[in-house]
Each structure stands twice: as C-alpha cells, then as structure tokens.
Write a structure and sequence with these properties.
The complex is a heterodimer.
Chain A (H helix, E strand, L loop, with lengths): L1 H30 L11 E6 L14 H5 L21 E2 L6 E4 L4 E4 L3 H5 L4 E8 L5 H10 L9 H9 L9 E5 L23 E4 L14 H21 L3 H25 L6 H7 L6 H18 L4 E5 L16 H25 L6 E6 L3 E2 L2 E2 L10 E2 L1 E8 L7 E3 L1 E2 L6 E3 L2 E2 H11 L8 E4 L2 E4 L14
Parallel strand pairs in A: 1-8, 1-9, 5-14, 5-17, 6-7, 6-8
Antiparallel strand pairs in A: 2-11, 3-4, 5-13, 9-13, 10-12, 15-16, 18-19
Chain B lengths: L3 H12 L1 H18 L18 H6 L16 H7 L15 H12 L9 H4 L7 H10 L25 H12 L10 H13 L12 H10 L1 H14 L17 H13 L4 H10 L8 E2 L4 E2 H4 L2 H4 L14 H18 L18 H12 L2 E6 L7 H21 L6 H10 L17 H18 L4 E2 L13 E3 L1 H4 L2 E2 L3 E4 L7 E5 L2 E3 L10 E3 L10 E9 L3 E6 L8 E3 L6 E6 L10 E6 L29 E10 L13 H5 L6 H17 L7 H10 L12 H15 L5 E6 L8 E4 L7 E5 L16 H8 L7 H14 L20 H13 L4 H9 L2 H4 L6 H6 L12 E2 L2 H11 L49 H5 L18 H9 L1 H16 L5 H13 L5 H13 L5 H12 L2 H4 E2 L1
Antiparallel strand pairs in B: 1-2, 3-17, 4-16, 5-10, 6-9, 7-8, 9-16, 10-15, 11-14, 11-16, 12-13, 12-15, 18-19, 20-21
Helix pairs in contact in B: 2-5, 9-10, 11-12, 13-26, 16-17, 18-23, 18-25, 19-23, 23-24, 27-28, 27-29, 32-35, 34-35, 35-38, 37-38
The chains are: A alpha/beta, B alpha+beta.
C-alpha cells in the first residue's frame, strides 16, 4: 500500500503546483456571476409533470364544465393556443374538488396527499405558453425558447450559483427511463460550460453511467498513480499544459464522484417511516421508481446540489406520461398515483427538516389540457392546451395556500394576470438571489439570459 | 461555440428588446382590452386609434395618448388608472394592476412601437431607401470582396521557402518577430498524420516510408474517406433519424454518408460535390458510379433532408413548415457560404447584407421541388432482368394460351355451378340463376345505363389507350416505368403451384413484373389539376399507399397504406390553402419510395417496431385517373357482362354462359382482350376453372422456374430522400412579417442573396449551384479551403468556419487564404491535392513547443508558430480502441449500426446494438437525434440538429469516468491484452514496448519501462488480468487521448 499512497501524494503535489492555472480559470469563469441579492432559497427541486396534467382536473375547479358538459364550445372558444375547434364539447372534471387546509385552496381528489400540504402551495392558474406542442413547450419550460439551442434552467442555476459540493454536479436529473419530448436538449448546457449540463441519475439499475468503478479500489488507485506520473510528463511536452492538467484533474474528481454519487443515490439507510412517507416500497413499480427519485432529490439537495429535476415515468405507449388524449380517467389517476404521495412527502419531509425555506419545489407540466373534448365518453380525454393552465411552487419563500391568476369560467383562457414561463424563471432566480437580467453569458456577440428579453419577477407570489 | 452563428440572430433581439416586449405583452393587451373601441377594424371612439403608432402619437380629441418615457404624463395611464372620473378606460372595469404595470413599463422604456401603418405594411418590408443604403455599406466586407491575386512572399529561411503556404506563414511570423517551432520528432509527426488523415493510429508497418510516401499511402487508404466524410457530416448536421418526438428513420441517410466516403476517397472535385448536394437531381448528366451501380448525383440532395423534422404540417399547426425551412436555409448558407442567412427570417439582417426578402426567395427555391424519395440505382441497372422477365412472361402467356384453348362445355359449367356457390361479382351476377336471366339482364342494362350516365361528369385525365400519365404527373422507379399492363396481363406467381397469381386490369402495377421494383406516382399540386376533385382507381398492399404533402416538404403524417387488391376509387379534393401553404400534392408510392416510410411506430399496422423498412416487397396499382367538379366516384359500367347480356346468343342459358366465357378466353389467347374481359378471366382463373399448373418437366415449368429465378436475382431498390423537381410549378413563398407565421406578407419569387447575385440570375437550384462555382465567387472556395485547413490544424485561418460575416472571426492570413482558394480552384477543386500540400508543409510539421515570446504575443497561435496539441475526436478515440485491441472491422459502408444502449425504447426504435458496435468504425453507428451514441456524445459529438463546422472540445469528469469504467473501454483492454498474450515468447519488457508502439506510436524510455513493469507487478504480475489492467491504464493516458 505504501508506494500507492506515495504516488498519489506525489500527484497531488504536482496538481497543487498546477492549481494556480485551474484556480485562475475557475475564478474567471465565476467572475461574471456575482450573487445579486440576498438569497432566500439555495436549491430548486423541479417535479416535471411531463405531458401536461389537466388544470381543470387538479388545481383550477370549473363547475361550469359540468353544467355545460356535452355542449359545443362554439367558435368563440377556439384558440391557436389549444387543440380546438367549434364542434368540440365541454367536459366536466371526473374528479371532485375540495377546499383544503387553513387556506381553503382548491385541490381535486386526484391528489389526496398533495391536498394535505395545500397550505404550502403557491398555485399559479394563469400560465400561458406559446404553442400547444410538447417538444416546443418542453424546451420553452426548460430553456426559455421554443427552439431550445440555449442552456437549461438547471444549467443556468448551476452556472450562476456554483456548487457547494465539488464531488457532485450542480444539476442533476433524476429520470425514469424516459426522455421527454424535445430530447436531451432540455437538460443540456448549450453554450454554457459543459460541466453545467445535467447528470442523469436513473431509477432502475445503475444510477449513473460509468459511476460504478470497474476495478477494485486498490487497483484503480494504482492505475491513477501510474497515470499521474505518465501524464505529467506528457503535459510538459504538450503545447498547452493547462488542457492536459485539466484532464488529469478530472480523474481526481471522477475518482471522488464514484463514491459520492452512489452514496447519495443509495437510500438503504433511510429510516422506515421516511421510506413509507415517500412510498419507496410501493407495490407499483412506477410509484417505487418515482418515490426513490424523490427521496434521492432530498438527499441531493442536502448534499448541496443546486438544481434537481425529477421526470415522470412513462408507463404505456403514450407520447409522454401525462398526455391523455384518451383514457384520462384511468391514466391521469395512474399518473397521480405514481407521483402524488412522493411530491407531498418531499414537501413535508423538507419542511420537517427545516429545509423547505431554502428549497423551492416547482411542480409544473409544459402545458395544461383542454377543458373540452371531441366527444364525451368513458374513454375520452383532453388535448393540448397552453392558454391558461396551472403550476405550483412550494417553499423557498413562496407564499403558501394561495392561488394567483384566473382562467375564465371554463378554464379555457386566462381571465386575469397572465404569467409566462419567463416570469416563472425570473421569479425562481429572484428567490435564489439572482437578478434574471444580470445572470448573463456572453455568446454569439450578445449577453445571453435564461429569460431572453422577457421575464417579470412576480413579487405577488413571494413572502 | 456550437451554435455561435445561430445566436447571432438573437443579437437583434437585444437591440429590439423593448420592441419585443411590445409585441409579446403590450400589443396583446391593446388588442384584448382596447381595440373594441379604438381600432380601425371596430370603432374609433373619441377619435383615438390604438392600432398604429401614429394613432396614439396623434391621439384623440384630448390630444396625444402617450408621452414616450413618461407614463405619469401620458393620458393613457391616467385613463387606465381610473383616477379621473371623466376618462376611465376601460370604462366598465379597471384592468388588473399587473396589466397596468405592463403599459407603464413600456411607456417608461420609450414606448417603442414597431407597427407600421396599414399603407406601409402592404409593401415589401425589404424595399425602402434605408435598407438600400445600408445594404451597399454592408457590401464593404472582406469576405465579399474578390479574392486577391497574390504572390507568396519571399523568405530567407530555406526550409520555409519551398512551399508557398510556408512562405506566407513564415513571413507573418517574421513580421511579428516570432520564430516557428522546429520540426516535430518523426514519431510524433507520423501519429499526427495518421490521426489527421485517417482518424486512426498509425500502423507500424509504414515506418520505412518517406514522409511523402507515407502521406500518399494514407491518402490512398479508404480510411481517409471515412474520416473526411465525418468532418463533412458535422458541417451538414448528419443524422440517421429525424428526431423530435418519434425519431423516425431519415430514409437513405446512410446512402448519403456512403456517398460522402466515396466522394472523398475518389477525390471527386469539390465543384461536383457541391453541385450534387445542391442540385444533384437536376444535373443533365448525372454521375453514375459503375462499380456500385449508383446514380451518385441523385444522392447529393439528401443534404437538405438532414436535421430535425417535426411531424405534422403547417396546415395543422402553423409554423411547423417554417421552422424546418429555417433549418434548411441555415444549413445551406453556413455550409457553403459561411453566412448566417437564417437570421433574416424575421427582419433584414442586423449585420449582414442579407434582406428578409433574400431569405424568403431562398425558401421559394428550396420548396419548389418535391422533397421525396428517389431511386439511386443506376438507371439501367435492372434493364436486363426486366427484359428477361417481360420475355418470360410473354412466353408463359403463350404456353397458357395453348393450355386454355379448350372451350368450356355448357354441361360442365352447369354441373360446376351446382357445386360452387361463388359468383362473378357485379350487378346481375348470373351463375346458377338461369330462371332469372331476363330479370338479371334488365337489371344489368339499367345499371349499365345508370353508371354510364353518372360517369359523364368524370373527365379521364390519363389516356387509357396510350398508357400516358396526365400532364404534370410524374412517375418514379422501374415498377411504374415497366408496370403498365394491358387488361389480362398475367401476374406470374412467385411461389406455390400456380403459374399465374391473377390477371391484371388495365393500368399501372408496380408489381407487374416484380414486387421488389419500386414505383411512385406524383401528382401536381391539387389546385393545378382541373376540376375540384381528382379521383384515382387504386389498389395496393405491403405498405404501398399514399401520402399528402403540403408545400412539397417534410414529415406530413397523412399517410394511408392500401390493403385492397381489387382497385377502389379514392377522391382527393382541393385542400384549403391556409397558413401560407401554397400547394398540396399527393404521392402514391411503394414503401421504398415513400419518403416517410417507416412512419412513427404504430402508424403502419403490422410493421414491427424494430423493422426499419429495409428490403421490403411492396406494390401499388393505378387503374384510372379522372377529374370532376361534383363529389362522387366513377361507377362500374359492368363491361364484364356485356358478352353475356348484350351479345346475341343461344337461348340456352348454359350455352350462353359458355359462349361468354369461351369468347373471352379466346380473345385472351389471341392477344385481343376487350374491356370487360379481365374480370371474367380473372374470375375464371381464381375460381380454378382455367388450368394454372405447370406439368413437372414441361416447357411451362421451366419458364416459370426461370421467371422466379430471374425475379429472385433482382436486388431490392436503393432509395434516398432527395429532390424531384420534374414538372413542379415554381414555388413562391409568403414572407412572414416580422417572422410571425400568422402574418403573411407578399409572395416572394425564387431567388438568391442579392449580395451574391446582384443581377438576379438564380431562380432554381441548378443555377444556384453554378453561381457558387464561378471561379471568382468570393465565398465558395474560401469557405471550403478554410474548413480543410481547420480539419488539419484544429483551427481555421478564419476561426469561425460557419461565419465569415461580421460576427465571425477575420482571417489570420488573408492573403494566404486567397492564394490557397485560387490554387485550389486551379488544381481542379481537388481536396486531396489541397490536403497533401498542407500536411507536407513545414507549417504542419512544426512541433508543439511554444516559446515564451510566442505565448506572450500570440497566445491563440493564430500566427501558427507551433502545432497545437489536440484531443482525439470522439470517433477517433473509439476507433483507436477498436484498432489497437484488434477488434476493428474494416468493412466500408452500410446501414447504420445500432449503438450500445443501456436502456431501450421500442416506441422510438431506440434499440441497443452490441457493446463494440460489431467493431465497425464510429461513422457507421446510428446517429439518432433523440439518442446519439453515448460514448461519442461524451467526447463532444456535436448536436445533430445543427450545422457544426467546429466541434467543442470540453474537458469534464464524465470523460474520465467513461475511460475508467465504461464497459466498452474495459472490453477493448481485455481483447487487446488477450491478443498480446497469444504470443507467449515475448518477455514483459518487449510486450510493454509493443503496447507503447501500438497505442502511442513510440518506444518507452528506460524510466517509463520500469514504471509500467512496476505497475504490472502491482496489478498482479505476469497474469492476463494484470496485462488487461495495464492495457486499460495505457488507454487512459493523456498521450493516448491526445496527439501533438
């Protein structure tokens, strides 16, 4: 063992010598990104409800839909922002709404667990998107542009705030073997440095690609020691030693990540009552995956990861999990069963640990669903709708038990206080202590922003 | 910097930020809250109109409504605040505070209002004096000026005075008082040459060659074409799939990839290469490759199809078409012109001499042709087989005519009818109903007259007598070309006991000779066909079918696969042209010529998810084309029964029937089949009344066997998504005002960028290609030469290869660039000659050593005082692992190999391939937009949706994790070690030397040898495991991953 340690030691010393180079680079990279104000929150957990949960079946009760069920919506209700035509008919919610908690916030019976933490929720009912299409809306939600080709919000947060844990990435996506429409670009760093792209952690099997060491520790350390000596000589003969030294340093980080990442991902040491709270031992495979990811999300946030995103599992041939053009009764219920308990558990668990104040939980799909349908039937569904839909935030300084904005009596268009994704992005960054107009990266001859040229901080939502 | 130039478009957004806020926030509010009473469309209450800037500037009866910059002084704000009793707006209910804030902030920002008044709006936005002035100013830019004619400067340095390129470089260094680096060590240079020219490590066999001979050897190696094709694939955003939600296969993309490999290996001139990609379908003399029996030119336009294709059409969702056109214009203008034309989609370019009009003129050029599948087999590839099949069919028919000569007896038919219940389909089907003859005859007559009367409204478009398509309709593929059949033509059975499968009706049948033959019928835009409706009599199977295409383009999902053997009439009504769509066409195609086959999983019933649609039999029949103004389809005029009811004949029913059949059969045997005979004959055949078996050993049996054998020898067609501009009407493309797809401006005629085509000579793609190949063109050669320079040196003379405009870099050696571009043209646009010149230059030979002075004065190495150390490209890393471990399969070309995936998604056809991709080079791995090969992505495979002239080279921990733990890397180490250990007579030191030689192309020094032997000892001594670990460690050295 002695010689191995000796080699590593030598290598560290060499690296320390070279560190000035990296340090300077890192400093330069960070220099343009000061904290802009006192931060309320430190982390974000984004529960991405991919496919578009129906707003009129969850957080936006519309009794008129029942009253007029089966009646044609008429040409006045047709909009480019939803899949609509005059002949479609209103479709009342199959689920009952109730006022919940102290606040009396309306939550439907689709979400019995989330209903119990209603007083923590800051619901926005007046979200407006650009196109009623998954790919475009997903990219808008993640990158602020329907065409993408820009960094994900997680990458911006990672870039803007840096990491508190150098063994873990700043942006983690806990996925469930399903890539949302719009592709991996939703989680990409685009023109930001590649270190800010999302690291994907899978629910099933090995959580992160290549994270499990191929070699036993002693062998791997010996390899690294050998490489240290060999590489330093090569660096000396390269035209730019810094690049090679950077590559060498990456082996150090990679070595540490091998134990740090699985450590976080392994939830075996969580006590029984916590496991039960999240539903980790559910008999439903999909709920088990989601619960595992939710619990990992909390652990990642505790470990200092800035932005954690959880995607939904896709359980049938749907285009995306919440995309119920048909069979909404059956499959919205199934989606709710998979996610409801874990999302509620995250909120209450974070709260009990005193972490909810500094963690924003964002629950959002890329769209809502039409309050109308082509024809009422047992198997009917709802289609794409971005003309007024609901999302919620919890924690991180957002007011609880409130609903902001209104849709019309049918949930078909925004009646007051339209909010777009840029406004949400601006407000999230604001709560993280970052001015969305100042978090910029020079690219293509211009200071690029997450919010492009848009965004308004919604002060009405925050305490 | 992958989307560097794309982002330039967004620059304009910052300039116009406040305006955009107007468009996104203020204008909608105005429309929603104010227009009811204050717009020209509704009312203008109080004299105030808010639908134009001049409206609020002038104001109403109370004066100007807005004072820009001063919300507190603006009447509008007063009214909105409901502060004054007299002017409360809107009168009934005050707006929510959040909306009032929007107005206040907008006014404070100066109330920018980009709306132009109605009168001005109708004019072309690109016209106008200011743009003209600006345009001429912008022409003053280095890359638009003629290439200079320069002599290489004189230099004293002997080693640097032979090659003109070196003289330019050396002179510039001297001017900066910098010295070039000395030549790299031979081993270092060899490794560099091998990677730069082939993307693979050097083999030891070539050590004795001179540098020139070594370079020539590499240039002759097929690995050169593979490596350079991959470079070009970055430039054109190569993909094997169309991405977006379903990641459908991009038909024939791999044929284009193979075409690139052949083009680079054969050193096809860049002029031809460009011509083919832009207009390969229009070349009067296409380039036929006699080895591969391929029409190479026709593959070129696949270039346009690459990139992401969102499904659906602009008729369903406005904007889909426009988004994709934007990607095509972006790719074309960056690849060949290094110009960011796509920025001019919404407005005249903010920096370049490119107008919005230019953008839409180019869109019109690109949407004139059909974006569809073409057969790329050499035109006469199947001629011999087809002629044989035709002869054999005729011979078989002649044999059958003998066999069928024996007439039916009335008694036999009577008896047969008693035991068979099948009747010939049609009105008055008579068999077994002798007592109803008179009634049936009357029914038939009435039906016939009714049908004839009803059919008067249908105007036949195809001349049935001449086998001619209507004007403007085009066909594709041997299946159509050789598929016209007279009524009663036998369809030879390809298997089983029967000789004839069926007797075909008159019409086009792609499978008349073989269902392997491809066929397509493409009609003009519906609105160009006379009549409101066009109806076709169609049949098809095995994924033969139709697709409706608007504006000739992209992935419309309106595909129908036919499953009917007797033909049926289908009607196509003129579609409503909306959302700027100018034309709607329909294509009828076998699966191989359907550009969207296979469609998303689930849409082709019976097609398995893992079936990529290769090598499928498929067929389609077109038996009639009519146009009409009233709805409906032609009715059967019951010709089949004319011989029964119309002809004078025996009073005996069965005699009459026999005569009917016998005369039809006799006519067939004499080759004089009449209308109406075919259904009768086909019915007789399929009912088993006509003999249909060949006696073993008979001449007929021989003929059938031969037919089947010739048919079996026909290869499945090779088809590629390309262009088909035959008979298409020239498109015009509606300008989208401010890029807004909902605001349609003037229709723009096809044309090119005014800055490059001032006399507006370009109206189609062929003229476009030829204009780019003018030897004095300021961009074409410069842009390409610069790309080649970058591929060899890592950085171009212009560091931004896709942008020679104002946001791009300026050339480090402008005169060298021009000299090289001219020389390149002079040498016949030969890539290999250019490459050879550059890699044999002293500039290229330099070592990576940098002096302090050089680092100080030119840290970016723009003056080329050394050769910068480069990391291997993703493909080179993977290919080197395969090569060194002995696992590399050197097979060229072929269908994409599925990459290894830890998770599969059948609905997206994302299946996993073997861990080592069968040892194939990385260029052959399936480039799926949705899930590209993970290993390559880890090392900066570029975003597949966008042109990427230059790759990122990132340096992140996940790369270390890949090299340490990825099962592929470890598997390769294992294979390598196992291979090394086969030779048992090698001592440990020599084996380490051998490994260094293979992986690093050099021998270890004494200290290194000791270091690695020590490590071997710690890894477990002289055991297979220890050698595997050592091999794996060597793969992880930076020296392996980089070259100097």
């Amino acid at each position: 063992m002695q010689p191995h340690d000796h080699h590593l030691c030598t290598r560290r010393q060499i690296l320390a010598g070279a560190a000035a180079g990296f340090g300077m680079l890192a400093l330069r990279a960070m220099a343009g990104v000061p904290l802009h104000r006192r931060a309320r929150a430190k982390n974000i957990i984004f529960c991405f409800m991919d496919g578009g949960p129906s707003h009129v079946d969850t957080f936006d009760p519309k009794p008129m839909l029942k009253k007029f069920e089966g009646k044609a919506i008429g040409s006045g209700a047709v909009s480019k922002r939803s899949q609509s035509n005059a002949g479609r008919v209103w479709f009342g919610s199959p689920w009952e709404f109730k006022q919940r908690g102290q606040s009396g916030l309306w939550v439907s019976e689709l979400f019995p667990h989330i209903a119990q933490v209603a007083d923590k929720l800051c619901v926005v009912r007046s979200m407006v998107g650009e196109l009623p299409l998954h790919g475009q809306q997903n990219l808008l939600l993640h990158t602020g542009r329907i065409l993408g080709q820009a960094p994900s919000i997680g990458s911006w947060v990672s870039y803007g705030l840096g990491t508190e844990n150098h063994n873990l990435p700043g942006y983690v996506v806990l996925n469930n073997d399903w890539v949302p429409n719009g592709g991996l670009e939703n989680f990409g760093s685009s023109f930001l440095p590649a270190s800010h792209q999302a690291t994907m952690v899978r629910a099933k099997g090995v959580p992160v690609d290549n994270i499990a060491p191929h070699d036993e520790a002693v062998i791997q350390r010996r390899k690294l020691a050998l490489l240290a000596q060999q590489d330093v000589e090569f660096a000396a003969g390269a035209s730019d030693a810094q690049i090679i030294e950077g590559a060498i340093a990456n082996y150090e980080t990679a070595f540490r990540m091998q134990s740090a990442v699985p450590g976080i991902a392994d939830i075996a040491d969580e006590p029984e009552h916590i496991r039960r709270l999240y539903g980790v031992d559910s008999t439903d495979e999909h709920q088990r995956f989601y619960a595992t990811q939710a619990l990992r999300a909390r652990r990642l946030v505790e470990a200092g990861v800035r932005f954690v995103e959880i995607t939904c599992p896709s359980f049938d041939g749907n285009n995306s999990p919440w995309d119920q053009h048909g069979q909404i009764r059956q499959n919205h219920a199934k989606n709710a069963r998979i996610t409801d308990q874990s999302v509620a558990a995250l909120i209450s668990d974070l709260d009990q640990r005193g972490l909810l104040d500094e963690t924003i939980l964002l629950w959002a799909g890329e769209m809502g669903r039409t309050p109308h349908t082509p024809k009422i039937s047992e198997s009917c569904g709802r289609d794409h709708h971005v003309n007024g839909y609901s999302i919620f935030m919890a924690g991180g300084g957002f007011k609880g038990g409130m609903a902001f904005g209104e849709t019309d009596d049918f949930g078909n268009s925004v009646a007051s206080d339209p909010v777009d994704i840029h406004d949400i992005h601006a407000t999230l960054l604001h709560q993280m202590g970052v001015d969305h107009e100042k978090l910029v990266f020079r690219h293509g001859g211009r200071d690029q922003r997450l919010t492009d040229v848009h965004g308004r901080v919604l002060r009405e939502l925050t305490a | 910097m992958k989307s560097f130039a794309t982002m330039a478009c967004l620059l304009t957004a910052s300039v116009m930020g406040a305006e955009d806020i107007f468009v996104s926030k203020v204008e909608p509010l105005l429309k929603q809250r104010c227009f009811e009473c204050h717009s020209h469309e509704r009312k203008i209450k109080g004299g105030l109109a808010l639908d134009s800037k001049s409206g609020w500037e002038k104001g109403g009866e109370s004066g100007p409504a807005i004072v820009p910059g001063k919300p507190e002084a603006s009447l509008l704000m007063q009214a909105l605040s409901h502060a004054e009793k007299d002017v409360k707006m809107p009168p009934k209910k005050m707006l929510p505070a959040s909306e009032i804030v929007v107005f206040a902030e907008w006014i404070r920002a100066g109330a920018p209002d980009p709306r132009v008044s109605e009168v001005k709006n109708s004019q072309d936005l690109a016209a106008g004096d200011t743009w003209d002035v600006e345009f001429h100013k912008r022409l003053d830019w280095w890359s638009l000026k003629p290439m200079r004619k320069v002599e290489p400067p004189k230099v004293d340095d002997v080693a640097w005075s032979k090659e003109p390129v070196d003289r330019f470089v050396r002179a510039a260094l001297a001017a900066a008082k910098l010295q070039p680096a000395a030549s790299a060590e031979p081993g270092v240079l060899r490794r560099r040459l091998a990677f730069v020219l082939t993307g693979l490590p050097p083999s030891s066999a070539s050590a004795s060659l001179s540098d020139e001979a070594y370079v020539d050897m590499l240039l002759q190696s097929p690995r050169f074409g593979e490596h350079f094709a991959r470079h070009w694939m970055d430039v054109v955003r190569y993909t094997d799939t169309y991405g977006y939600e379903w990641d459908n296969p991009a038909k024939g993309a791999y044929e284009y990839r193979d075409y690139l490999i052949r083009a680079f290996n054969d050193d096809i001139s860049f002029a031809q290469f460009l011509r083919e990609q832009i207009a390969g379908d229009l070349l009067p003399r296409p380039r036929i490759n006699t080895d591969s029996q391929t029409n190479e030119s026709l593959i070129g336009p696949m270039f346009y199809h690459l990139g992401e294709h969102r499904h659906g059409s602009s008729l369903m969702f406005n904007g889909i078409h426009q988004e994709m056109v934007n990607n095509k214009i972006d790719a074309f203008s960056k690849a060949f012109l290094a110009t960011t034309v796509a920025c001019a989609r919404c407005h005249d370019h903010k920096l370049e001499a490119v107008s919005q009009h230019d953008y839409y003129a180019l869109a019109a050029v690109f949407t004139t042709p059909r974006w569809t599948s073409r057969v790329i087999d050499a035109p006469n590839k199947n001629d011999v087989a087809i002629a044989k099949l035709k002869d054999l069919r005729a011979a078989i028919r002649a044999e059958m005519a003998v066999a069928w000569k024996k007439p039916f007896e009335a008694a036999f038919l009577k008896q047969w009818a008693e035991t068979h219940s099948v009747a010939l389909k049609g009105v008055g089907a008579p068999l077994a109903t002798p007592d109803q003859f008179t009634q049936k005859a009357a029914e038939w007559r009435k039906a016939r007259v009714d049908a004839q009367n009803a059919n008067a409204i249908f105007k036949p478009l195809a001349d049935a007598a001449k086998a001619q398509l209507p004007h403007g309709w085009v066909m594709e593929g041997d299946g159509m070309k050789h598929g016209f059949a007279e009524a009663g033509t036998p369809l030879i059975a390809l298997e089983g006991d029967g000789v004839i499968a069926r007797l075909l009706p008159r019409g086009w049948h792609t499978h008349a000779l073989s269902s392997k033959l491809p066929g397509a019928l493409r009609m003009p835009s519906e609105h160009l066909i006379p009549g409101r409706f066009v109806s076709l009599d169609l049949a098809g199977g095995e994924f033969g079918g139709q697709l409706v295409v608007d504006d000739h383009a992209f992935q419309n999902e309106t595909i129908t696969f036919y499953t009917n053997t007797p033909s049926e009439w289908k009607t196509f009504a003129d579609a409503e042209l909306k959302n700027g769509v100018q034309q709607v066409t329909v294509e009828f195609a076998t699966s191989s010529l359907n550009p969207n086959f296979p469609p998303r999983t689930g849409l082709a019933k019976g097609l398995k998810n893992d079936d990529f649609g290769y090598d499928k039999r498929s067929w389609l029949s077109v038996c009639g084309i009519v146009s009409h103004d009233k709805a409906g389809t032609p009715q059967d005029e019951q010709d089949a029964f004319a011989g029964l009811y119309d002809a004078a004949g025996s009073p005996d029913f069965w005699q009459r029937i026999a005569a009917w059949f016998n005369s039809a059969v006799a006519r067939w045997c004499d080759g004089k089949t009449q209308p109406g005979d075919q259904p009768v004959l086909d019915w007789l055949l399929t009912s088993g009344l006509l003999p249909n078996k060949a006696e073993p050993g008979s001449r007929l049996a021989t003929l059938v066997a031969e037919y089947r054998s010739v048919e079996a020898g026909i290869e499945f067609p090779r088809t590629v998504n390309s262009m088909d501009q035959r008979e298409t009407a020239q498109a015009s493309y509606p300008l989208n005002v401010r890029g807004n797809v909902d605001v349609i401006g003037t229709l723009v005629q096809p044309g090119f960028l005014k800055m490059l085509d001032p006399r507006a000579r370009v109206t189609d793609r062929l003229a476009l290609a030829e204009s780019l190949l003018d030897p004095e063109h300021p961009l074409t050669a410069r842009v390409y030469v610069n790309r080649v320079w970058q591929w060899l040196f890592g950085t171009g003379l212009v560091a931004t290869p896709d942008d020679f405009g104002r946001l791009g870099d300026k050339p480090s050696h402008p005169e060298l660039l021009d000299w090289l571009a001219r020389e390149f043209i002079h040498e016949g646009w030969s890539t290999k000659k250019l490459v050879r010149r550059l890699v044999l230059s002293q500039t290229f030979r330099q070592s990576g050593l940098v002096t302090d002075a050089a680092r100080e004065r030119d840290p970016e190495n723009r003056l080329l005082h050394h050769y910068a150390t480069r990391r291997l490209e993703a493909e080179a890393i993977r290919d080197s692992l395969l090569a060194i471990s002995g696992r590399l399969d050197s097979q060229l070309y072929g269908r994409p190999v599925l990459p290894f995936r830890s998770v599969e998604d059948g609905a997206k056809r994302l299946f996993s391939g073997p861990l080592d991709g069968h040892g194939r080079r990385s260029i052959y791995l399936q480039m799926s937009i949705m899930d590209p090969p993970k290993f390559l992505v880890g090392f900066n495979l570029p975003d597949l949706k966008l042109p990427a002239g230059r790759r990122d080279v990132t340096n992140v921990p996940s790369q270390a994790l890949i090299m340490l733990n990825d099962p592929f890397v470890n598997e390769m180490a294992k294979c390598w070690a196992a291979g090394l250990l086969k030779d048992k007579d090698v001592n440990r030191e020599d084996r380490v030397r051998q490994m260094f030689g293979q992986a690093l192309a050099r021998a270890p020094d004494a200290a290194e040898l000791k270091r690695w032997i020590d490590a071997l000892q710690d890894f477990g001594g002289d055991t297979p495991d220890a050698w595997e670990r050592l091999a794996h460690a060597l793969f992880n050295t930076k020296e392996f991953l980089y070259y100097r």
